[in-house]
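---------- Forwarded message ----------

FYI, see the tRNA-binding protein record below. Original note from H. follows.
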Amino acid sequence: METITWHDFEQVELRVGTILEATDFPGARKPAYKLRVDFGEFGIKWSSAQVTKHYTLDELPGRQIVGVINFPKKQIANFMSEFLVTGFADANGDIVLTAIDKPVPNGSKLI
């Protein structure tokens, strides 16, 4: 494993946001949802997430997640992703969202 410096870590904007909306993403290569997320002072941003195995569209709105908001935008099919949704692969390789266990203000930075 390669080590990084504290300065390297500080440059990654890992921020908390609340999912406002989740919709199907039929154009994605792998099953995914489109997520609209409120990052407080950093605005409302869209991304896609391959989380269809563990989450339904109805249970995602209102959930706080962690995203990287300072990557460049990325074209995914006919959709522009504005941040990276973070998560972990389970034993089957299906993604479980990175989440927090108590509410914090949208836009809060992981420290």
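H. also flagged this: The radius of gyration is 14 Å.
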